[in-house]
Amino acid sequence: MDRFVTASRKRKRHVGGELDQASHSKKSREAPEEELEEDYGEEEEDMLLKEFSQPIPWRKIEAEGLDCDYCLLFKTDEANELFNALERELEYFTGDQAKVQVFGKSYSVPRKQATYGDEGLMYSFSGVHLLARTWTPTLENIRDTVTKATGHTFNFVLVNRYKDGLDHMGEHRDDERELDPSCPIASVSLGAARDFVFRHRNSRGGAGRGGPPPVKLELAHGSLLLMNAPTNTNWYHSLPVRKKSQMPRINLTFRRILKKLK
Ligand SMILES: O=C(O)CCC(=O)C(=O)O
Ligand SMILES: [Fe+2]
Q1: Domain boundaries defined on the chain
Q2: Which GO terms of the cellular component aspect does the record hold (predicted)?
Q3: Domain 8-12+58-255, CATH 2.60.120.590 — does that match?
Q4: pLDDT tens sequence across 167-213
């Protein structure tokens, strides 16, 4: 379990209820008052009531071996500001670091990428090893908002910038060994809304092999998608080309990387 200062720990308990409530929609969205009276001092209670007066409406997305939670984390104005701030702050990889290796051949990535996080953290996939740059103020702000909404802490973010609907991401799973399996991947989307497609590992290949049907969703401006275990074991995901989409999009996948592999 994550370590929190007091207020965050209390909030985590409540938000856990919210997430849970998304899948059992008959439960009340409000925190039961007796619980607040029992557990919190007056000042904290006021703070919590204020904070939770507009609980985030989470949507549960479930299929066989797929478990995700989706919500609109930022209002449009806030999301616009965050997008513009990231456009000013972020530096993307160029040259060899903007390429991946597949079966010994080098390919340019059809989007721009950057990695930020705690000092010294490195993330490796498709033959590239990306060292995290120091968090920027806007990334820290978004990371902390995601932590407050989910109760999970993150030490790394992979940024993908899609200049338009031609930029895309191929089907993959985020199942690298260095990812902490107890921590979901938290995906924040800003800018153009884009389709996001999950495909079960038994439904890939020409004939589809009769696994469960794909799960498609649109990731909206200001949205948060939590990919919980075991989603990334059973399902691949992709961001397909959408030729009609002309606006840019930035996606941030917050992750927890294990510092030492066992
Ligand atoms: O841009 C997206 O929504 C997909 C990002 C993703 O799958 C990843 O960073 O691993
Ligand atoms: Fe991914």
Answers
A1: 8-12+58-255
A2: nucleolus; nucleoplasm
A3: yes
A4: 999 999 998 889 999 999 999 999 999 999 999 999 887 655 678 99
